[in-house]
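Input record (one chain):
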Amino acid sequence: MPPKPVIVDLKYPEKVEVGDLVEVKVTVANYGDTAWPVVVVVGPAEFRNATLVLTVYDYKYIPELAPGDTVTTSLYFRFRGEKNLYVVTMIPVRDPRTGKTRLVYTDYKALRIEAAEEKPWTLPLAVLAAVPLIAIPVALAAKAREKRE
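The corresponding structure, as predicted from the sequence alone:
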């Protein structure tokens, strides 16, 4: 079999806050001599018994990656604090025994994304500025009540 499409470059932020939308720019190249349809996927993955178990957060389908071609695409997902995030390239392969076509991974790269440090709890400046505005009328009302009594 000829060489398959591979991931040649990944660009992504290394520190993000949980819940942020993350953009991963993936560059895929085909160094072989056969054109391939390619699926590029991002999500948490693990290997179980030599099988890649992948949860798909986002994917891009490249209908044909010609020999010598390079394609850059963006994948997006919401960061949830996972440690096992991967970008995977897959191609369709026909199983001669069953006649069914399935996706087989050709390359994968781990994403090293860390959760940003959480900021200590602080009151917003607007709330702090509003405290005197609320306290003054309350104090004036209390003085007025004392004078009436």
